[in-house]
Amino acid sequence: MSKYNPAKIEPKWQKIWRESGIYKDYSRKNKFYALDMFPYPSGAGLHVGHPKGYIATDVVSRFKMLKGYSVLHPMGWDAFGLPAENYAIQNKIHPEAAVKENIKTFKKQLGLFGFTYDWDREINTADPEYYKWTQWIFLKMFEKGLAYESDEPINWCPSCKTGLALEDLENGLCERCGTQVVQKKMRQWVLKMTEYADRLLEDLDKPSFAKASAGEEELDWEKSIMDQQKNWIGRSEGATIKFEIKLVPKTKSSERFLRLSLGKDWLEVFTTRLDTIFGCTYCVVGPEHPIIEKLKDKIKNYEEVEKYIIKAQNKTELERTDLQKDKTGVELQGVKAINPFNNEELPLYVADYVLGHYGTGAVMAVPAHDERDFEFAKKYKLPIKQVIAPDLDSYKKTIKTLEALKKLRQEARKEGIEFWLLGGLAGAFHAGIIYREHDDLDIIVKDEEQYQKIGGFLLGLGYKKIREKKVSEKLTNTIYRNDEGMEIDIGPYINQWDLKDKDFETDLKRLNESEALVLSKIFQIHLKEILRKNRIEEKDRIDLEYLKGKVFIEDGFLVNSGKYSGHPSAEAREKMTEWLEKKKIGGKKVNYKMRDWVFSRQRYWGEPIPIIHCEKCGTVGVPEKNLPVELPKVEKYEPTETGEGPLAGIKKWVDVKCPKCGGPGKRETNTMPQWAGSSWYHLRYIDPKNDKELVGKEKEKKWMPVDLYVGGAEHATRHLLYARFWHKFLYDIGSVSTKEPFEKLVHVGLIQGEDGRKMSKRWGNVINPDDVISEFGADSIRLYEMFMGPFTQNIAWSTKGVVGMRRFLEKVYRLKSKIQNPNIKTNPKSKIQNYKLDTVLHKTIKKVTEDIENFRFNTAISAMMILVNEMEKEEKISSTSYELLILLLSPFAPHIAEELWEKLGNKKSIFLEKWPEYDPKLIRDEQISLVIQINGKVRDQVEVAAGVKEEEVKKLALAQDKIVKYIDGKNIRKIIFVPDRLINFVI
Ligand code: ANZ
Ligand code: ZN
Questions:
Q1: Residue 845: what pLDDT?
Q2: pTM of the shown model
């Protein structure tokens, strides 16, 4: 028999497949659309990491074909954009030529893998026939007001010499070249992606995947990717509040505050924590905030403010918002903000930790409950006022009644823990000071539950504080009454504590939750008394120094908050929002982190934006019939320093007639970003040659949504967001019938170099698939990449692993010689030839089927390896068994499968077969204990596989020592066999 020779059989089958068009049967009833994230054809060609995802979709495509689906599995090129252009510049070739060249290489390389692509559907985003429709979509957005010009400062990469979208940054650096971006004010085109923010969020899970017609289905996306999208969209529910602005006149002559000339002036802030409003001790605006310019004349230290603003402009957003970075700011002297809830006059600062474009660009600062505000307040010695107490619900549960409390106290006393009681008092005292604020305390005291919470929480604090001299002195001069009405002078105890500091600490540590509660209860009973006796003054309030570095940022219960004290945070937020709305000075507000998509690039290699600027008519869309606006062929395409794209230099191209008025107009010279073409390519594959529509309605309905989309996790927040945005827009204008484009999304884990590093020229660890294929064959590399580990995991390449796969395939090939009666076909269901092997076989069918469906290719392959080992042990195997093995293997290693299939005498391609189904009877897994009786008496039992036949059981039973003894040459008169239960020998 011939030897396995992939070098011969792989090209042979690739040619046959290509010529027969076997993958292009689109007439079957059920469809499956498998989509890969298409590559940008870089100059370096593919390394072995790139095809991993492509192999996976190919395995699934072939599997689905065998399952009777029409499978759409296309491939194309993401050819526009920076990577291609930068490559061209570096290598001094025109990007168009470079792309053409690179595509050739890529296509050749992909061809070696034997993928099921329908190359008739190949698309190229840089092809005018394609980008005509990219431009068309832009025009539609422009018509609907979703594409607009803006002059806002944007992120500019000085190295790529172009503006970038927020999504193009990685930790504040240009994602392409790693250069620090700067803020640059320039004219740009922006797409109103924020208009879709809520839908982009909602449709991710709830009633997410919805075909317009069909019922609701969930998006089958990995949670991690969904989470990344959710975070990127960054929905925040909160409120806006208007703070009235008051001005302190510059002249000292008047002490009164003056209102701005046009009545009241307001500062609007956005907060997610309205419940903390009583803890607001200052307000902040970002350096971009218009109020600074507006109040220019009123700000006493404007010069200083201006200097600060200029400095802030050079910082990246990351530098500005990084929690670790030092917070800076300048007070706007002469300007105050009034907290509408308590009419407190608060200082107003400009600080760059507040961002201009988020929310309202201004915040109410609550240093006790926000870490950035806290850092800032510490630095500028601003008051820190606690208004939220943690919820100590668990304490409440531990003890319910005063009885229990008293018992505990008694027990505590038995152990001589009077300290605790006093500690409790001290804590109470301290807490009383802290919480004493206006008449809030009354509310607290009235509300027992609240009280416990606050008291319990503050006990620890009390203990600590008490040891500080200042407090000790105060306590020493005070007389307290315990809950039995006894007066206690705690002075001496305090001194004791000081003396026995160590013991005290030990005691402290012994406090458990319920004991802490005891103390808080006592605190509760005594507090009124304490306060009355001591007539505690406001000035005694001790600020929460203990909070240093440990800001309580969670929800809890309000304290120090006027009539809102005692309410849980969420409830308080609701009530406060209502109040704002009633007063018409604010209300509920939802904010998104995501921003509109900065859509223009000052580069050559992209789709021209189909807009004409006319002095009279403004911006005018190029009429549809004039699309595409072709990218002019130019000699010089390098980016310029000016912030204008290279197209601006081509006068002949720029100067046009205004389509509206016929007057002189100029073409838009910015181009679209790399992500434009890929935002809708999934639709073009469906109908790639249609010159009337971007996709024909019937075809779109037939194929959408994409059933399986596989690609890199790095696209989680950029491409996948853009594509969903465009798809939703196309849904809205009736171009597509589904709200979401991609039903199932799986991310591919990276293949690293053999050294565990990212595969890159820089590390010299790049492995070229062409070499691997010429040495071991495409089927071996296909199998290996699916076998290396769980699909979504990053994993290092190992050439040894490919060798292993090659050996496995050789084994499979050799097994053919074990076929018994190769010419007689056996029916898999009726004629079971070898029970044990068939069991393994059918289990393997089940496993491989389920594993492919769940992207567990590695375990599918191990199951097949086990099967092959079992087959090797047999002297003979049936042709049916062998065929089943080949079928199971075919999606993974299509060439060898097809070859062997042919060798078995089949006339049609294996991919026109039906995927095997397992026989449930055969995979009843359990080994069962089968009882052996002699004359009805149990004498022994044996372990056998379920379903085993009488003949086999008989042989087995008669071979058992015990049974041999009983039978001992006697004549067996009768055998009674109950399958899977017993065998009875009558002698
Ligand atoms: C008061 C407050 C108190 C806040 C507190 C938080 C905690 P997310 O959840 O990310 O939406 N904020 C608002 N606009 C801002 C801006 N332009 N730049 C920087 N920070 C800004 O964050 C919303 C919170 O971030 C808002 O709620 C506001 O601070 C701050 F205990 O208001 B908060
Ligand atoms: Zn005009």
A1: 96
A2: 0.75
Region of poorest pLDDT, from 433-437, 615-619, 675-679, 854-858? 433-437
Q: Which numbered ligand comes closest to the C-alpha of 240?
A: 1
CA of 694 to the centre of ligand 1 (A): 43
- Around ligand 1, the residues with Cβ closer than 6 Å are 236, 270-273, 276, 286, 354-355, 358-359, 361, 363-364, 366, 369-370, 591
DSSP 8-class letter at 765: -
What is the Cα Rg of the chain in Å? 38
Exposed (0-12), middle (13-18) or buried (19+): which is 304, by Cβ within 10 Å?
middle
Residue with tokens 């299509």: 894
Per-residue pLDDT reduced to its tens digit, 578-630: 999 999 999 999 999 999 999 999 889 999 999 999 999 999 999 999 999 99
Phi-psi region of 701 (alpha: psi -120 to 50; beta: other; left: phi over 0): alpha
* Cα(514)–Cα(409) distance, integer angstroms: 11
Task: Tell me the mean pLDDT in the region 775-782.
Answer: 97
Atom of ligand 1 nearest to the CA of 358: 17
Cβ neighbours for 706, distance < 8 A, ≥ 6 positions apart: 33, 34, 35, 682, 741, 742, 743
Looking at all shown ligands, the one closest to residue 359's CA atom is 1
Nearest residue by C-alpha to atom 8 in ligand 1: 236
Query: Are 300 and 334 a contacting pair, CB within 8 Å?
Result: yes
User: Which residues, 6 or more positions from 942, have their beta carbon under 8 angstroms from its beta carbon?
Assistant: 929, 930, 932, 953, 956, 957, 960
Q: What is the pLDDT of residues 487-543, one digit of tens each?
A: 433 333 333 333 233 333 334 334 444 444 444 444 444 444 433 433 333 222 223
User: Distance between CA 72 and CA 32 in Å, rounded?
Assistant: 6
Ligand nearest to the CA of 657: 2
Would you tell me how many other CB atoms lie within 10 Å of the CB of residue 81? 26
**Measured in angstroms, how far is the CA atom of residue 366 from the centroid of ligand 1?**
9
pLDDT tens-digit map of 59-70: 999 999 999 999
Residue 241 — φ and ψ, nearest 5°? -135, 140
Task: Using the mean position of ligand 1's atoms as its centre, give its distance from the Cα of residue 632 in Å.
Answer: 47
